[in-house]
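Reply to dn_fold:

You asked what the input looked like. This is it:
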Amino acid sequence: MSKLVICEKPSVAKSIASALGVTSRVDGYFEGCGSSVATSRCQGHSEAPTEPAGETRWLISWCIGHLVGLADASAYDDRYKKWRYEDLPILPDPFRYVVSEEKAAQFHILRSLMERPDVTELVNACDAGREGELIFRLVYEAAGCTKPFSRLWISSMEDAAIREGFSDLRPGKDYDSLYQSAICRQKADWLIGINASRLFSVLYHRTLNVGRVQTPTLAMLADRDSKIVLFHKEKYHHVRLALEGAEAVSEKIPAMEDAQAIRDACDGQQVVCVSVAREKKTEKPPKLYDLTTLQREANRVFGYTAKQTLDYAQSLYEKKLLTYPRTDSRYLTGDMAETASVVLHLAARVPPFDACPEFFPDVLALVNEKEVSDHHALIPTLELEKADVTVLPVGERNILLLVCCKLLCAAAEPFVYEVVTATFDCGGHTFTTKGKQVLSQGWRAIQEVFRSSLKEKPEDEDDEGVLPTLTEGQVFEPVSASVTEHFTSPPKPYTEDTLLSAMENAGKEDIPDDAERRGLGTPATRAAIIEKLVSSGFVERKGKNLTHTKAGVNLVTVLPELLTSPKLTADWEQRLNEVAKGQASPEDFMDGIEAMAAELVWKYSHISEDGRKLFQPEKETVGLCPRCGKPVYEGKKNFACSDRACQFVMWKNDRFWTSRRKEMTRKMAADLLKKGRTSVKGLWSEKKGSTYDAVVILDDTGGKYVNFKLEFPKRKDGVYGKK
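and this is what came back:
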């Protein structure tokens, strides 16, 4: 008998084949008898091999991502090829699925393998999550397969983890609810995306891509940018006293004259320390990475986009150096403790961590069964022992070092320090100074070693400086006083770091505390959402910052709150999670989505005239009208004054130009408007049958049409010729 293993990507299939001892590769799959989980003997490689009873032959193939997907609206009816309001809402029943044209060859390979008579069972080895379940099931159903299948659920591509997973395959039916959740998510996104995008695109005469995750994300960006633009800065002042080894600062003082008066009263005077407060604080080690926190820190430390970080992490996963990256958990399960202990010691030997002070890692601090969902936190694998980190591509190397650093820090001792706050009096005025004294570096010593190894230091929060020893009653004299001027600061623009954090926490107030999925999107999809907003022209990158474009803010302005608020996606994720657990009906969920799509179409049937102008491209001024001084814009057939009552217009197909086989360009029009003349080469002479160069002069008499005249180069007698 043969078992067909279907993976999500060729690289994963290769790793699984290697782990199972299957080495023979043919077109689109691996085939053979394995050595570990499989069998120790194998006979031949024919389509229907003859093997001893009970011996398993492995066929290992792949999907190349989504091979099967929902059909476009036009597949249901030809009239849907055009986007029209009267055709909305589009509510397919049943939904149709199509095989991706560019991936059809691989689908046919998979179907032929499923149909082989020797194949008695399948193994779903696609990524262990909602989307991985969807990818396998759609191919399985599109191929019309009815053979039994089991589920491989692993978090690492190491050989040992793969073999362990195959020794503990789970029944495919155990994941039926997860599949229903995935199907609901896919259909719901299609219904709202197709109907809302067509609805608002038709209304505003511009292609507007609307999505339940990307639109609220855009709204957050627009809201932040609006707060920055509308921010009104306010001036304030501080009076500063220069003490020996420290600086004492006054409260904020709005008026400059008040600050100067305090400075004059204190300058050269005696200052007394009236109180010294000490507070011991402990900063616990950070938790391990999930994908979002890795993306955030990689953006902050290296400037990587969320997509770049995901790509690097995925590549490291396929190279068996990292565990599954698309995780939303920051802890390990109990059965990982022994492996984590070994990996910790391996990470400590990787430069620059080999320069860290010795410590005794607390592996149990990394374990919390209740906080692990589909996959445990991101950590390096045991393959780290054999890897030469220095030869990895720089992006992958940086990400691997980040993960190593986080693992070491998470298992280290706390950072312990003492916050010192001293208060001073000078002539009845109060000043304070703050600082800290480190009692134990703990995990921060490891982080500092890593940060010191970087060429460019990341921006960190300001830390209070170390203060000299201060005591109550201590006197400083004389002191120097000065005034510094400051302004209140607007909110900072979003970076990918802060936007990912905002996406992760969006809508928290609308989600129950026990909900497993929160925020906008999932760790696996947030990077793609940001990239789509950029490629659609709604968001642009300015250095590390992300900001909305005019089209982006207009889109947020015209869409209803239902589509711009995180509440919709928060509600969806909560209900989809209930479907995945078998606690809610998929049919009820979809009924609600269809009703929502229909209500959108009914509610937004028309817009105002001003609304139609929102997405019209901005016209660039060619020049100023010689009659009224208002802007002149270029049209398809002319250059006309923006004031219709003025009636000034220069026609591109004026006989003056067509008879000379020349077209008036934007530059010519700009010259004519600014200087009243433009030099033109290659004008055609019908009389002589040849070309000539001349200066064209605008001759506007104020009538309905403008005239043009020709001016030729000087003759020998120095006189210009005109025509």
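The CA atoms of residues 203 and 607 lie 7 Å apart.
Hope that clears it up.
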